[in-house]
Amino acid sequence: MQASDLKKILLSSFLGLALFGCASAPAKKNNANRKPPLTPAQRLAIKHYKEGIDAYADDHYAEAITHWKLTLANDPQNPNAAEYITRAENMLKATKGHKKAAPTPTPTPLGTPAATPAP
Fold first, then answer.
1. CB of 84 within 8 A of CB of 56?
2. Is 47 within a domain?
3. Which residues lie closer than 8 Å to 48 by C-beta, 6 or more apart?
4. Scanning 36, 60, 91, 116, which has its CA 20 to 30 A from the CA of 85?
5. Mean pLDDT computed over 5-34
6. Do the domain assignments include residue 6?
7. Are 71 and 81 in contact (CB under 8 A)?
8. pTM here?
9. Is the Cβ–Cβ distance between 74 and 50 less than 8 Å?
């Protein structure tokens, strides 16, 4: 066996180990940075928090407040829910009386055309 053949064998062995890993015991995962699993209360808090965001985005401020209060009931340390409750309460006060209620349709007898409401 020549020196060049030995070099090729060593090089191919080294590349094999580098590409496919060592055949020794598998490496242990570092669990020190892993977060603990969520509790059922934390999952419920997240659910209500997201539903509050959706309600707020649809201008349903009272519903958003309800969801965020449930968030705080399940996760009192939630950093945003209390602030969002205050914002929603302010929006509720600001829009009170400013939104027009949808006109209620007047019932018409069968067979007669419905009247169009005046502007």
1. yes
2. yes
3. 67, 68, 70, 71, 74
4. 36
5. 58
6. no
7. yes
8. 0.55
9. no
